[in-house]
Design brief:
By secondary structure, the protein is mainly alpha-helical. 84% of the residues lie in helices and 0% in strands. It folds into two domains: 75 residues, no CATH class; 155 residues, no CATH class. The model has no long low-confidence stretch (mean pLDDT 82).
């Protein structure tokens, strides 16, 4: 097969919506393999590594993001069912959840309000402008909700998306180590903290530790997204 035939095949594949889907799956497969070879090092989280690989690929071939997403939207669609599926491990912890509903509620309220307010005040003290402050507020909320909150507040959704991913990576890397340092052993407590602070990436890390920790992290991630959409506009209005 000569180079002209290969070029024709490449042009055909790159124009197909399946190109984005195929490249997404390949990138995640490579990233997951690297993650396993690194013995589960949180710094090599497969989600983040796959995103980096895809960015390099799109920049190399000069493909617009909109063309890539035409195929990758199939994976995006599965985000909803995957989130709903988190109810299955949570159901298995339902008896424990019934006993802990009040501490869980208090922890969620405190995590959402203090997490948003503290980062905004620190950034304000460091001299960040108003739009950056509003983009920072939902940094610990899962990305689709965080971007919506940011847009509603008057921030930059694209900046918020970067901050959300960064927060998730930092939380997944430092979270379990911090729990060990503080001698926090209860997986339900660890899961709630991870879900509130590090959203989806932290929840994925929690499932790697234990099913119980992952279940409570998933619950915290979902409920904190709801609470953030209600509370953060009010908190930001009061602060700014």
């Amino acid at each position: 097969m000569n180079s002209d035939n290969l070029a024709q095949i490449w042009v055909y594949l790159s124009a197909s919506p399946l190109f984005g889907l195929t490249m997404t799956l390949i990138a995640y497969g490579i990233a997951h393999r690297v993650y396993r070879l690194a013995k589960g090092n949180p710094l090599l989280n497969p989600v983040v590594t796959a995103v980096g690989l895809l960015i390099v690929l799109l920049l190399t071939i000069g493909m617009p993001y909109q063309d890539y997403f035409a195929g990758a939207q199939f994976v995006h669609f599965l985000l909803g069912p995957a989130t709903v599926a988190l109810a299955i491990p949570l159901y298995r912890q339902f008896s424990k959840l019934k006993k802990l509903w009040l501490p869980v509620l208090v922890a969620l309220l405190a995590g959402v309000t203090i997490g948003g307010a503290s980062v905004v005040k620190i950034a304000q003290w460091l001299g960040a402008d108003q739009q950056t402050l509003l983009s920072l507020a939902p940094k610990s909320v899962t990305a689709p909700v965080a971007m919506g909150i940011s847009e509603r507040l008057g921030g930059l959704p694209s900046l918020t998306a970067v901050l959300v991913v960064t927060t998730g990576v930092i939380g997944s890397v430092l979270g379990t180590r911090l729990f060990d340092l503080l001698r926090i052993r209860d997986d339900s407590v660890r899961g709630i903290a991870m879900g509130v602070a590090a959203h989806g990436i932290g929840t994925a890390r929690a499932f790697q530790v234990s099913a119980e920790m992952g279940a409570f992290a998933g619950l915290a991630m979902a409920l904190s997204a709801f609470l953030a959409s209600v509370l953060l506009p009010w908190v930001m209005g009061w602060l700014l």
